[in-house]
Design brief:
Blueprint: H1 5-15, H2 23-43, E1 49-57, H3 66-71, H4 75-84, E2 88-93, H5 95-102, H6 111-125, E3 129-134, H7 140-146, H8 148-165, E4 173-176, H9 186-203, E5 208-212, H10 219-223, E6 233-239, H11 243-246, H12 272-276, H13 282-293, H14 298-315, E7 319-324, H15 333-349, E8 353-356, E9 366-367, E10 375-376, H16 378-383
Length: 388
């Protein structure tokens, strides 16, 4: 049974004298946590409208060359992000080159770290908050699921990363423990996350931590997680529901998603039979059919996000949805932007900050050809409620 936060705090006050702690010290501990929670809520206001910059310092292994890092996202791109009205950037970082850069035997930063520092400092100079997101690729996550030694390495990595950025503005530099951990055992992930958070707090006592549920950081994963003892924490979740719409044409997960295209949003049953014919396998076709039967529309999205908001309220913690988006390649633009609008407004109705996935990738808010400046997609910018 999960105790309400106030009940838990009261039990702490009652229990500590039995354990040999004085009453006054216990009250200070509870008060300190309350102050940290208040700080987290205040800092969450810097994370109201964000964007992910993907395939830059992560998701591009093994090419983290100077050429790639200097061109994938530029200072001009960061300036454009600020001009569009975003207030924060989620900066994803692959664990392997990060560890190589932080722990060089000669004690000097690698090109990777030099350019990562430049990216963080440029974002801060342009008035943007930065979510420093550890975004490892496999086999890092697989090892974490099966090896306690890998947990040691993760803890050491975060201790070094947090110390490296502890001298930046703590009001605007946030530490996200891990993107979509892939750990299906919520109890194991809760233990890993608590251990890593403690290491981050030791190395960077002033910064706010971003924590998540296990597995894919979906809402249901958030609901399975107990809040950390540390009060200076914001909790995140990702939202891509319904996947048959947001990932139509995508090739990296369910194989049948690659076959489907032209799926409308909101779901209209008049389109169902013709589009179902795109999926020949009966079991996959059955799963596909549920997109229409579940009546996905703005109301359904709002009710779903309300579940996350209720968890945050019950636990007295701030929330952010730091990934949501729809694959551009074969999705009808009007449907895609209608979905983005409905998710964004549902989050804002519940007082939850957001960061769209992503800046100029396959889910992007801007379009960019090699060698040419990025061009914002006016309809997507409007769906996000930002400047045109």
């Amino acid at each position: 049974m999960r105790l309400p936060p106030r009940t838990f705090a009261l039990l702490l006050v009652l229990a500590f004298p039995v354990l040999g702690f004085g009453q006054a010290q216990t009250v200070v501990t509870v008060q300190d946590r309350a102050a940290d929670v208040q700080k987290a809520f205040a800092r969450a206001q810097h994370l109201k409208r964000g964007i992910n910059v993907s395939h830059w310092f992560s998701q591009n292994a093994p090419d983290y060359s100077a050429k790639h890092l200097d061109s994938e996202t530029t200072d001009d791109d960061i300036a454009l992000i600020a001009r569009l009205g975003f207030d924060n950037v989620r900066l994803s970082i692959d664990a392997t080159p990060l560890a190589q850069g932080l722990f060089r035997p000669d004690g000097r930063n690698s090109e990777f770290m030099t350019r990562l520092d430049h990216a963080v400092d440029t974002m801060l100079a342009d008035g943007l908050a930065v979510q420093i997101d550890l975004h490892p690729e496999e086999p890092f996550k697989q090892q974490l699921r099966t090896s306690d030694e890998s947990v040691d390495r993760l803890t050491m990595l975060w201790r070094g990363l947090a110390a490296h950025y502890a001298n930046r503005d703590p009001e605007r530099v946030f530490f996200e423990i891990m993107n979509e951990p892939g750990e299906n055992d919520p109890y194991r992930w809760a233990g890993i996350q608590a251990r890593v958070a403690a290491a981050v707090r030791e190395a960077a006592p002033r910064n706010t931590i971003i924590a998540t549920g296990g597995s894919w950081s979906n809402i249901v994963d958030l609901l399975r997680q107990p809040p950390l003892g540390d009060g200076n924490v914001i909790y995140n979740f990702h939202f891509y529901d319904p996947h048959p719409f947001t990932h139509q044409g995508a090739f990296w997960d369910a194989q049948w998603w690659t076959w489907v295209h032209g799926i409308p949003y909101p779901a209209t049953e008049s389109s169902m039979n013709a589009l179902l014919a795109q999926v020949p396998d009966p079991a996959n076709r059955y799963a596909f059919e549920n997109y229409w039967l579940d009546h996905w529309d703005a109301h359904r999205i709002q009710l779903t996000i309300d579940e996350a908001a209720a968890w945050g309220k019950n636990n007295n913690v701030p929330l952010i949805c730091n990934e949501f988006g729809a694959y551009r390649r074969v999705t009808d633009p009007a449907s895609r932007n209608a979905w983005i609008h409905d998710v964004r407004t549902a989050l804002e109705a519940d007082g939850i900050g957001w960061a769209m996935w992503d800046y100029h990738g396959d889910f992007g808010v801007v379009l960019r050809k090699d060698g040419e400046p990025a061009q914002p997609d006016p309809a997507t910018v409007e769906a996000l409620g930002l400047k045109k």
